[in-house]
Amino acid sequence: MGTAIDSKAAGWTPEEVKAELLQKYPPKVARKRAKQILINEALENETPEISANVRTIPGIITMRGCTYAGCKGVIMGPTRDIVNLVHGPIGCSFYAWLTRRNQTDPGPDGENYMNYCFSTDMQEQDIIFGGEKKLAAAIQEAYDLFHPKSIAVFATCPVGLIGDDIHTVAARMKEKLGDCNVYAFSCEGYKGVSQSAGHHIANNQVFRHIVGENDEVKPGKFKINLLGEYNIGGDGFEIDRLFEKCGITCISTFSGNSTYDQFASAHTADLNAVMCHRSINYVADMLETRFGIPWIKVNFIGAAATAKSLRKIAEYFGDKKLIARVEEVIAEEMPAVEAAAAEVRPRTEGRTAMMFVGGSRAHHYKELFNEMGMQTIAAGYEFGHRDDYEGRRVIPEIKVDADSRNIEEIEVEADPTRYQPRKSAKELAALEKAGYRFKYYDGLIPDMDSGTLVIDDLNQYEAEKLVELMKPDIFCAGIKEKFSVQKLGVPMKQLHSYDSGGPYAGFQGAVNFYREIDRLVSSKVWGYLKAPWQREPQLSASYNY
Ligand code: CFM
After folding, report:
1. pLDDT tens-place string over residues 341-382
2. Going by C-beta distance under 8 Å and a sequence separation of 6 or more, which residues neighbour residue 325?
């Protein structure tokens, strides 16, 4: 099998593919989409800028979710001991109820509300007369039933439209209940252009209402927070296993397998390791400004990336024993990973993948495909910003439009008593001089091969067209794309919920992923998609007297 683009795209150059995708659109739409479809030149500094984090054109069936989904589902969804109460019609709650497959360990206290679906179940009369009383009653009811330490209230679209003051209701209930932290999120679905706005709204409130609430110093020598890891399909469990094995203490994870107390204690850690930077990089910045904790980018998707990330954490602490222990762990874990890779490679080598997911996985998973000898021929984010594509250095150039201005940026200053730089300026400079990088990520584009396609906010029509033209061996996206792609005869792997699989993070996760992708791309079932009478000319017969 030759390289993907030559043999499989059947003569289509990337320019032709781009032209084909745009051809159906009216000229104005085509002009706008053209800026979001980039033929990668793999030149870090000369790659033309991509248009991202802009509104989807009405009428286009986007893959994106809403702001409420980003706040309630993504950031707060994995919190097990916070009652997540949705103020809105029941459908908004029902569809955000564990469909992301974020897992949790109920812990020794067993306080776990994740399997419940809390909603005020708004009706027409609440829309007409206002829903504040109903919300207050629902908070009271949840408190009476469970006595949780915290209740989070989420606004859905109708709440914003009728103007219910959820923040005042939350503040009043917090005061009334006394021992329960109640706060609200103005995360109406329409608030931003995608779920990315919801991440920001959620994280701002977590920072404002929870972080720093518990000053108690937790045991552990090498204390970190893991930001932007959501324990989908048990990814977080595998990462925690590795941390424990290495002797690294994870004070808090934002927010996979997390507890209220983890957020409250986050300021006691000594390093922030940021996994999904899209959903949380600003929290890392705020933790540094207020408490003096530096941050680095990590990635635990892919065995090589996992090893690199563990080494990076050890290098930060600079402790010889920790560095040696991390090497031991890597040496212990890698043989199984290498054996699995060698086992699948004869079938996966040279195959091609497309990935259109959220805001960081379309990049992170490229590592896993590389390890199987597979090439990513087209990739993109649903709601990434330019820095997720082009690297963090472009942040100062990003134009702030009206939609982004709508999302609050909270001003943070050094905490008067608790700010304490974890490393001196000299120590930081020494690390940087040795090639260590703080506060940085490169983005997807520099990592993609030349001549591949990078597409922002891919839609249903373009997805089908891409598959039709470039015939990848596997397509990765979400549930909305799953069946339409499979009907085209191409296996489809959900990289949001992992279908029913996972974990895919860390070393054991890599093994799981290799096996799963091997199973999908090696299956013969896709060849039977057309019935024999659709492929062969019709049988004919004649009467003979
Ligand atoms: Fe971050 Fe995520 Fe993602 Fe995301 Fe998401 Fe997700 Fe995702 Mo689905 S936080 S940006 S909003 S890594 S739910 S765990 S898979 S789109 S690429």
Report:
1. 999 999 999 999 999 999 999 999 999 999 999 999 999 999
2. 246, 247, 314
Q: Whose CA is nearest to atom 10 of ligand 1?
A: 359
One DSSP character per residue, 14-40 reads HHHHHHHHHHTS-HHHHHHHHTTEEE-
Q: Which helix (H) or strand (E) holds 181?
A: strand 181-185
3-state SS string for 462-474:
HHHHHHHHHCCCE
The CB of 364 under 6 Å from ligand 1? The reply is no
Residue 90 CA, distance from chain mean position: 25
What pairs with residue 474 in β-bridges?
353
Residues with Cβ within 8 Å of 209's Cβ and at least 6 positions away in sequence, in order, are 181, 183
- d(C-alpha 233, C-alpha 100), whole Å: 9
Annotation says 117 is catalytic: no
Over residues 120-170, the pLDDT tens digits come to 999 999 999 999 999 999 999 999 999 999 999 999 999 999 999 999 999
Q: Would you list the DSSP string of 182-194?
A: EEEE---TTSSSS
Identify the residue whose C-alpha is closest to ligand 1 atom 1. 276
Beta sheet of 222-229, edge-to-edge order? 248-255, 222-229, 271-274, 295-297
Considering only CA atoms, which residue is closest to atom 8 of ligand 1? 496
Confirm or reject: Cβ of 148 under 6 Å from ligand 1: no
pTM of the model: 0.94
CA dihedral 155, 161, 162, 167 (to 10 degrees): 30
Check if 290 is active-site. Answer: no
Q: Is the CB of 232 under 6 A from ligand 1?
A: yes
With a CB cutoff of 8 Å and minimum separation 6, the contacts of 227 are 253, 254, 272, 273, 274, 275, 276, 280, 283, 284, 295
CA distances from 448 to 285, 377, 382, 440 (A): 27, 8, 17, 18
Say if ligand 1 is within 6 A of residue 70 CB. yes
At which residue do the structure tokens 């134009």 appear?
Answer: 399
Ligand 1 near 383 CB (within 6 A): no
Contacts of 251 (CB under 8 A, 6+ apart): 218, 220, 223, 224, 225, 262, 265, 266, 268, 269
